[in-house]
Specification:
homotetramer; alpha/beta; 7-stranded mixed sheet
Chain lengths: 334, 334, 334, 334
């Protein structure tokens, strides 16, 4: 039973149907197709904003390309010390930006506070310029920033001359938890550019970079080609994004995954190291309990950054109810 | 009628079926899936070699990652002056390699000769080291290197200390034309690393980087993550590659496209600027004839690099016979 | 009275005489001169080791070039969180290395401990490889590592597969304090590559990169040209280095500066935030006292990283005794 | 007898005197000294323009930093195929710019023509943006652009959206030959940024980057630190530049070197492959004559790029008359 990551899940039927539907006849290549042409409008409606949206196929590409577009080589990008951009992308932001520096910011439950950001800004190297704040929504620890928290962070960032990037690899899960309008945690709160994730929540391979200010797009287009991230048959990525955003698929999948995690959280309350606000659980189990769960057939991730006994469980959009029941029972029985 | 590029074609049914078949249940992510696990063996059988094959999703990524793995920042990569890596990738090789230099080599019909390579090596900047030769098979002008030509180029390259990369975006078309074993124009002829293309010939988005010498893989893995080119749900790319290589799909699609181009070549013999050896035709039509064809509904590419009146027509794997008939008739009637 | 930095001092007479002596007739350029030819031998004698020494003209160049030679783009370089390479070089290590990451390590009085390094290694991003430890001797806070401390750090670093770089911008001051052999805090303790500073201690502009293991030189030569750091008339840098190393100039200058700092430390004991082991003093003075000193004509540096009231005073090799007396009196009178 | 390069000459007495004069007392570091503070004004007077001048210590640094300031990673820099930036700097422009591409332009006697530039622009890769033209004055072949030629090149470049950089490593020699005002071949002709060389013409190590449009300075300052090219004791470089520009030293040295070359040209007329317009001669001597000259004690450079028998002789500012007489006699006697 796969609780290792929501990346282990398959694509949902609507996504596959959209790909199949896009597979008719000829279409112009390199983003000149009819599906890609609709992205700005469809994402614009979704977020209630005049924006520009670009399809890519990995979250790392979405993050690195948007960070590099806004951060010159001699600048600093502030991110949570456990952020995906900081820990899990083999230095993609440094590579794409030509050597900008990621500055780790501490923060409980994966969230950066205004106070911590302010401190990090003041303590940072004077020989580099602060350029960007990158926050993750939902966070790497399964928690979710409230709109007011994002507003406050963006306000401080903008006041100090930084743009704000949001890594929204699990934005759908955050929106499902908050029940708010997608604009409330993004552009209305001050976010300038967003990595919009769909892959983890039921797409096959589809992410979008969304610029809420068209003036910030700058040379993104050229950087995307140069990074090998402009697909020749781009219709297939755009078709996934359209299906995901236009339908209720994003919400349905996220709600279902969140609900599964919530159910598990009840059974594992004593082990929780972070509030469960999306589809991830972090449990302080210790080596023995972890081994017992593995022996029982559960796959999950050691989360060594938080200590030797910590484990991460992720509920996928299509996690069988029986998996959740089984894991819940196993957790209760530990 | 789309003769603009084989990138405008859809994916073939076998590829879509393979994606659908891979869409069952959970699978480990980031290349740890069962499909990716079979790539070395399946490509090894195809090429008759002990090799390592890595899936990526664009030709630019395949090229840039393989070039960067073998070319340090202070080195030179020799490629045809009309090569895709040189002209059409917005400097991806320079980006991924950290500033290696592409040295353009002239050559009739898109092919580099031993003599031209020797001259380019001797004339090149002494303050940079020669590291790589990159050749394209089939070439950007629709021609195809014969095995002996590749052998001779590789022999000179190796003698001078260069590794050899092959951009095989249309390798299937070249193999279909030559009717030889895949190994004959690659590792047996001296090619060290190959960008193996499937997208142009019927895949949805699937390319592979193939190292014929395992010792050359070096840090490719890390560079792929860092470039944002390791897909979380990599099974879908690997499944395409398996379906493409294991079946006769690659040959059938390529033969059909080549045959269409050959048919058109007969009707346009007087305009041909290069021999038609794969699925591309280059015609010296002049502005008036080009406009006439466009008025008749044909989409094709101006090929300005070869002069103002030149046009490129590409026949896709699924080009309707009626398209080919119509274009043939229109060319005859010019 | 300049206590701002030892960079504000002029060059000492022996250095200027060496430059003048080198200014005779013609000499081969780009490092092929007779002065440069002696560097390996003269530094080898100084350190008691078989080494390779390369002249450059800034400490940033020495640091960035040596770090980049040993750290690939997808690796991590561990350094003290107040290290010059981390805070004061506008990201030169990231630039020269193609985006390697500097990982800040905390540590009292500017020194990294084995425990802190071990923790930093364990907490670092698994998606990047640890490549280098960089330590500063004497440290940015005027303290000095003891040989056994360096040995222990190098032992841990080597055990984990890291090479060790030493930023020796003020190595002479550290050696003067310790009274040990130059080899004892460098190669004998495990240091692999050294930025050997002379500029701060009486040279005009002269530093050396010293590789204690010839196999680590790798592509340093090419990186130096590519960075614009191979001087055409390199004899003038090498002549400075020879004069500095072969004579007792390095020791005399460093001893004198250290002695001045020690004298001041006695007068400012109550304000000291770090032990005074070389030619730098860090004083917790607070805003009022700082202003009083400035009003009295003393130039010094605010050291904001350690808190708002902190100030740094550096005694130069040729600091007039009267300056030291005046500052000592002023400090006593605060 | 050294005719290998003007880099083999020593520094002239006025330069050494300026360094000695600057070696008094303390001075603010990192460009905050009194000498550096005068550069804008003194260079402004020299060129008759409102400009900004920055000292560096190598020509490669001057070139690479100015090119990188104006050329983004995904752009092209057009330069003569024999330009120093293209052939002799180990890819420094690519390194500093983050992978911009140098496009070689052919041209007789080291000079680019409007026609050749136009052709190169039209033939260049559409996937990269043209950003800069770099011309060398005097050229790598000892010839000199006339003001009208520079005007025409700059006009075309600007019309197509490119800025113009001039590599003035031997600008003094060109000015001495032309007898024109320094502004006539630089900003008045349309040059935007200049690498102003002094080292080859009698300085110890001193070059300047001169921006004729203050708006183009952009992030040059940060790039200079990041490249390790901001000297801590910058007074010594600025003092050299001031002495060189404010006095008649630049003209006297250049005139003398040019006159020596002119004298030699008379004796070697039959072997000349390029007009002698500055202090360099290129002679088609063939292997036997080259060996004869070497046997007679003359050091010079093989210039293989122009063919196996070609040799370069450079007359330095302080070339002894007896050297010139001896070489002249030897050439006549060949």
């Amino acid at each position: 039973m796969f609780f290792y990551s929501d990346n282990t899940a398959s694509a949902c039927p609507e996504i596959l149907a959209a790909i199949a539907a896009a597979n008719e006849g000829f279409a112009r290549s390199y983003g000149e197709d009819a599906w890609s042409a609709r992205l700005n409008e469809v994402f614009g409606t979704f977020f209630g904003a005049d924006l520009r949206a670009f399809p890519v196929i990995t979250g790392t590409a979405a993050n690195a390309l948007s960070l590099a577009t806004l951060a010159s080589p001699y600048t600093m990008i502030f991110a949570h010390e456990q952020a995906h951009v900081f820990r899990d992308e083999s230095g993609a932001p440094e590579f794409f930006s030509g050597g900008a520096r990621l500055v780790p910011v501490p923060g409980e439950h994966g969230r950066i506070t205004v106070k911590a950001l302010d401190m990090a800004l003041r303590m940072s190297a004077a020989s580099l310029q602060p350029a960007l704040l990158s926050i993750t929504q939902g966070t790497e620890f399964g928690t979710v920033y409230r709109p007011a928290e994002i507003q406050a962070l963006c306000a401080l960032a903008h006041e100090r001359g930084l743009e704000v990037h949001m890594d929204g690899a699990r934005l759908a899960n955050a929106l499902a938890f908050l029940g708010c309008h997608p604009g409330d945690v993004t552009w209305r709160a001050g976010v300038d550019v967003l990595s919009f994730g769909a892959t983890k929540n039921g797409a096959l391979a589809a992410e979008a970079v969304v610029f809420f200010d068209r003036n910030l797009v700058l040379d993104f287009d050229l950087r995307r080609i140069r990074g090998g991230h402009l697909l020749s048959k781009s219709r297939y990525v755009s078709a996934q994004l359209l299906a995901y955003v236009e339908s209720s698929v994003w919400r349905r999948n996220a709600q279902r995954a969140n609900a599964g995690a919530a159910r598990l959280a009840e059974r594992a309350a004593e082990y929780l190291s972070h509030p469960v606000e999306s589809n991830q659980l972090f449990l302080r189990l210790g080596a023995t309990r972890k081994q017992a769960l593995r022996d029982a057939g559960f796959e999950f991730c050691d989360w060594e950054a938080s200590g030797p006994g910590e484990a991460r469980f992720v509920v996928s959009w299509n996690q069988p109810e029986s998996d959740i029941d089984a894991l819940g029972a196993a957790l209760s029985a530990l």
